[in-house]
Design brief:
With 245 residues, this protein is an alpha/beta fold. The chain has seven helices and nine strands; from the N terminus they run E-H-E-H-E-H-E-H-E-H-E-E-E-H-E-H.
Length: 245
């Protein structure tokens, strides 16, 4: 598929695997010339150091972090996060690993931006997820604008919204087939970050009644179509940015 990087995130439970198992995974990635980045949830010094050891196994130079584990922030917790990240800065420099704080479902984008501004270190920046901030009724472009000055990585996904009984339902979609203006977001990102790393996230709900084999084949098709659509956008918008410079 031409993919150059994958992210191992906490939903896989990989941090509980033995070092021997992780080394085998790392060998598979190295054989295929695929870079690996690591994802974790819950900022603490102990948890980051644990995941930095995993980064070393995979020769990963990037660690994506969700700060709050679903807890609300408040000034006390914001200062707590600032202290931990500031203390980690020299450790990250030694390890050669950058931390990217993702906008998720706990802290608002303004809170994340305030934390990063206070820490103010080149090894610590932001991960923009194109749909997560909708949980705070933020427009994706507004979220991007706040995170752009310290942007290190982008998680792209698409979504659909439809009316249901006494509610609205928001669900994942194949890239380019939903309501997200992916092209506009890519254009904005590439104008200021032409070498940005994009992680394609698939959040399409499985249809009921599918066998395991049918679900896998359907997911393969969704990935393939999403990748084709995204590659087309990246090429056309990349050329447009080059021509404008």
């Amino acid at each position: 598929m031409g993919l150059k990087r994958v992210q191992l995130c906490e939903n896989l439970g990989f941090a509980d695997e033995s070092i021997e198992v992780l080394k085998k995974w790392a060998q598979v990635a190295a054989m295929r010339s695929i870079e690996v980045e690591i994802g974790m949830n819950g900022l603490s010094l102990e948890n980051v150091l644990r995941h930095l050891r995993i980064c070393e196994v995979f020769d990963a130079g990037f660690l994506r972090v969700v700060l709050g584990q679903g807890q609300s922030a408040g000034d006390g917790r914001l200062n707590h996060f600032i202290r931990i990240l500031s203390d980690l800065a020299p450790v990250l420099e030694t390890a050669g690993v950058k931390i990217g704080v993702e906008n998720h479902f706990d802290l608002t984008t303004r809170e994340i931006a305030a934390i990063l501004d206070k820490v103010n270190h080149p090894m610590i920046g932001a991960v923009f997820d194109s749909t997560n901030a909708i949980g705070f009724i933020e427009k994706p472009a507004d979220t991007l604008a706040l995170l752009s000055p310290r942007l290190l990585s982008v998680h792209l996904k698409d979504y659909r919204i439809y009316k249901a009984e006494a509610s609205y339902v928001m669900t994942g979609s194949v890239i380019g087939e939903g309501r997200q203006d992916v092209r506009a977001l890519v254009r904005i990102i590439m104008a200021s970050h032409p070498d940005m790393n994009f992680i394609l996230e698939m959040t399409v709900k499985r249809r009921e009644g599918l066998s395991v084999e049918e679900a896998i084949e359907e997911e393969k098709r969704q990935i393939s179509v999403s990748l084709d659509n995204l590659n087309h956008i990246l090429v056309t918008e990349g050329n447009a940015c080059s021509n404008s410079r």
